[in-house]
Specification:
The mean pLDDT is about 95. It is built from 13 helices and 13 strands. It is an alpha/beta fold. The radius of gyration is 20 Å and the shape is globular. Helix 1 crosses helix 3 and helix 9 runs parallel beside helix 11. A hairpin with a 2-residue loop joins strand 2 and strand 3. It folds into two domains: about 130 residues, Enolase-like, domain 1; about 220 residues, Alpha-Beta Barrel (TIM Barrel). The structure holds magnesium ion.
């Protein structure tokens, strides 16, 4: 058996800068991995970024973990579950683990000749799609929402930050009283901001996402008791155990599942099951992935356990040109996963090489 693991660090400019409570991103700089074995070529993408702002991981820590630890565990091409068991003694570094885990999902679904969304279990055959809108200059908010509504997105999510929430949400609701609207605070508030957070109830949001600390569930439980708006957790749910604990202490109604954050698709499916068992709801988030990372997200979002629209916009929202030739198209607020084996993307290898600022091979 021949086995080759290689990587490209790609830098793709974003069509429009994306602003959240922790900063503005102007391009996507991502490690893309390629695993070749006996005629099968599998891909994955690390959801880490240049900066450790969403979580403590960044591109450099992910590469360190993958090169120095995780690549040593895949010489016999284990199943994703077996791989996760092997690397359990490595604490944290979920995004690095997920990158390798998803490479194995793509490899095994391709070697079985099955599309990933079916390989993952019972599929709806489509993913419901919402949009995440970064913080914008005031005059751009209403036209941007209008454009998204006209395109058919099933849910509009607005990024907010402390002190800007009232302006953003009142402007949006005044022009769009009836749309399904939510807000994502990316951990920008503390429990002492409870009056501000309670004022958000008047906007009739589908949910308020991760208002408090990135590693908190206790304060979220306190906050949830005082709000009528459902609480969605993102950053704080980094494992199936934490998902269970969050529901046990009534800290959460909805979970935004990002495969990178939770260590991959195996844990994502476990979390989706836990959410359903507790009567909660789940959707699939995004990290401004290229077409490779996005294909994994769409496959997961098509699973029957995912019951709310995700942040899985077609790639054209983010990049003028993607590193895959077959980009997703949205039809009436849904995207169908690819039916060819694995993630089903056709990588534009020339463009991938052209947009790479670094590339190389990792010995296994
Ligand atoms: Mg979020």
């Amino acid at each position: 058996m021949t086995l080759k693991l290689s990587y490209n660090l790609v830098k793709l400019p974003l069509l429009t800068p994306f602003t959240t409570s922790f900063g503005t991103q102007v391009d996507r700089v991502a490690y893309v991995f390629t695993l070749e074995s006996d005629g099968i070529t599998a891909y994955s993408e690390s959801t880490t970024d240049v900066d450790p702002f969403y979580s403590y991981e960044d591109n450099i820590t992910a590469m360190h973990l993958i090169r120095d630890y995780l690549s040593k565990e895949i010489s016999d091409l284990p199943t994703p579950q077996a791989f996760m068991e092997r690397v359990e003694h490595i604490k944290g570094h979920n995004m690095a683990k997920a990158t390798v885990e998803m490479l194995l999902w793509d490899y095994h679904s391709k070697s079985s000749g099955i599309s990933l969304h079916k390989y993952l279990g019972k599929s709806k055959g489509y993913a419901d799609v919402g949009i995440s809108i970064g913080m914008l200059e005031e005059d751009k908010l209403v036209p941007t929402i209008m454009n998204a509504v006209n395109k058919g997105y099933k849910r509009i999510k607005l990024k907010i930050s402390k002190g800007k929430e009232t302006k953003i949400l009142s402007t949006a609701r005044l022009s769009f009283p009836d749309i399904t609207l939510s807000a994502d605070a990316n951990c920008d508030y503390r429990l002492e901001d409870i009056e501000t957070l309670q004022s958000i109830d008047q906007y009739n949001l589908a949910y308020l996402e991760q208002p408090l600390g990135h590693d908190d569930i206790i304060d979220h439980a306190s906050l949830r008791q005082t709000l009528s708006t459902p609480i969605c957790l993102d950053e704080a749910v980094t494992s199936p155990d934490l998902a269970r604990e969050a529901f046990q202490i009534d800290a959460v109604d909805i979970v935004n599942i990002k495969p990178g954050r939770v260590g991959g698709l195996y844990n994502s499916l476990k979390i989706a099951e836990i959410v359903q068992n507790y009567g909660g709801h789940a959707w699939v988030g995004g990290m401004l992935e290229t077409g490779i990372g996005r294909a994994f997200n769409i496959a997961l979002a098509s699973n029957h356990l995912i019951d709310m629209p995700g942040d899985t916009s077609p790639n054209e929202k983010y990049f003028s040109k993607d590193i895959v030739r077959n980009v997703f198209k949205m039809d009436k607020g849904t995207i169908a996963p690819f039916e060819s084996p694995g993630i089903g993307v056709v990588v534009d290898t020339e463009y991938l090489a052209m947009m790479s600022i670094e590339s190389g091979e990792i010995p296994i």
